[in-house]
Amino acid sequence: xNTHDFGPLVLGTNTFxxxxxxxxxxxxxxxxxxxxxxxxxxxxxxxxYIPGNLGGESETxxxxxxxxxxxxxxxxxxxxxxxxxxxxGLSAATVREAVExxxxxxxxxxxxxxxxxxxxxxxxxxxxSAAFDTLVREGKARALGLSNFSSxxxxxxxxxxRAVGHxxxxxxxDHYNLVERDFETxxxxxxxxxxxxxxxxxxxxxxxxxxxxxxxxHETSPRVETAVSYLQNARNxxxxxxxxxxxxxxxxxxxxxxxxxxxxxxxxxxxIASARTPxxxxxxxxxxxLILGEDELKALA
Length: 301
Hints:
The chain is α/β, with parallel strands linked by helices. The protein has a domain at 10-173: TIM Barrel (Alpha-Beta Barrel), CATH 3.20.20. It has helices spanning 22-34, 57-69, 92-106, 125-137, 151-164, 183-186, 188-194, 224-229, 234-250, 254-263, 278-285, 294-300, and strands at 10-12, 39-41, 76-81, 113-116, 144-147, 169-173, 197-198, 272-274. Strands 7-6-5-4-3-2-1-8 form an 8-stranded parallel beta sheet, with helices on one face. α4 links the parallel β4 and β5 (144-147). The longest helix has 17 residues, at 234-250.
């Protein structure tokens, strides 16, 4: 996979099987592909953390959708392993078991991008590299990524793979958006030096960057407390005003502006964002062709 294969937005699916049921998930996926989207992001743990769920719900829905639509060859599916307590950690045996189960749920013979969902300090960089390399050589994974790794550990794993000619880790997936900026000083310089790209999650800050959470105007949502907490920071309230102004000038949603800003940041190939409904997806799709000017980028800096 090269850095141009992700399109303008990667569809996050952590809500599938949680706040988005199967029928609605199918509708969101249909709308995403119809709009020109091609990359879908999931994880085996989605959504084991929700009471009543076992895990694997999102992958199962995606697998049923691709099978029913006959679209597996037209979309790229990324998934993550290592965080779910059914298959915790990154030993070679655990990673293999997790991937085999993900493939069954996804009804596919390969994963387009396979991530280590989080670090496993009990494993050496060489062990992690070897575990994932084997799956690429077997054709079960086509590209590799690391998610939620510290800068030193990410560099160590990437360099371990390079040292022995293992399949490269090309992509990082981390928490980054207009209000959460630590990535810029921690991981971004390392990724740039290693020639890797970033696909940031929580691109809309739990919905805060959609602009729908305002003082005295809070929707009911499982993520509402996180989003509303951002309002306590004066900088974030100013940020919303700047987003409002740009969105009004451009005739697009606040979310589209926030996503366009993120896509234009160094190392970022495409942001990851989720939608519970096709109506929510429409505001994300507005970001596909939106390119912010220098003055607009400065206003959001």
